[in-house]
Amino acid sequence: MNEGNFQGIRLCPVDLDGAVEVVARAIPKRNGEYFCFANIHVVMEGLKNQEFKRILNGSTANFPDGMGVARALKMLGHRFEGRVRGADCMLKLCEYASKNDLKVFFYGNTEETLALLSEKLQGLYAGLCIAGSVSPPFRALTKEEDDAYVRQINVSEADILFVSLGAPKQEKWMADHKGKIKPVQLGVGAAFSFLTGGVKQAPAWMQEAALEWLYRLPQEPKKTVSRMLLVPEFIYRLFLQLYR
Question: For residue 92, what are the CA distances in angstroms to 18, 163, 232?
């Protein structure tokens, strides 16, 4: 697998179709391999936290989710089209699952969102088999609760597990459950809310122009501002790596 590196963090420089191929190759292994979607926030978190960096580098692949990360990889010499958004990859994999008799499972978010998500995806992809979903409590789980969720996921015989807990919580959760959970795991962030309309997505032209942050600013001002403050250091590190 072609692989990039940003300041010691492994990144997979592929387009959306390439990402689906990478995930599809891991599905038959049934060992809980996990995949992350890297934007600037995720990368910078990994650079500032050695444990989180270890988690990212322990994934099967970290796809370039944010335009900043995708453009950085291209400046470092990698050739691929666009980027790999978690929501887009989730849709592509649901389409792939519907055509290949695979089962999907959703973990995270609220019961209401999960119900809307299942309804929407089954409307988009005829024959999609949704093996189940779990809306875990918004607190630390007890060992008994966690063991019960693991059993529920494995008994469902799901092939693909979409995890929506937000970064870095979802990446830590997936790393902790590799080898315990059988389906491949994908940490798709806010994809459940994007696809159900709970969080509105920026128009395509704003995404392409790397202005998605501006669209999300009124919806999530505190979160958006805190992440934009990471951009200058990311750019500095990029040019430092290019210089070296």
Answer: 11, 16, 33
Pairing assessment for the beta strands 9-11 and 4-6 based on DSSP bridges: antiparallel
The position carrying tokens 């949704």 is 130
Q: What's the pLDDT band for 214 if we cut at 50, 70, 90? A: confident
State residue 68's pLDDT score: 94
Quote the CA–CA distance of 78 and 241 in Å, as a whole number.
Answer: 14
Tokens 């936290």 belong to which residue? 49
Mean pLDDT of the chain: 94
What's the confidence (pLDDT) of residue 109?
96
Model confidence band, residue 203 (pLDDT cutoffs 50, 70, 90): confident
**Alpha helices, H only, 27-168:** 40-48, 50-57, 67-75, 86-99, 111-124, 143-155
Tell me the C-alpha distance between 19 and 24, whole Å: 9
Torsion, Cα 104 109 113 116, to 10 degrees, reads: 0
Domain layout of the chain by residue ranges: 4-243
Quick check: 36 and 89 in contact, CB under 8 A?
no
- Give the DSSP per-residue string, 104-142: EEEEES-HHHHHHHHHHHHHHSTT-EEEEEE---SSPPP
CA 9 to chain centre: 16
Token pair belonging to 155: 């008994």
Q: Name the residue among 6, 14, 16 with its Cα closest to residue 76.
A: 6
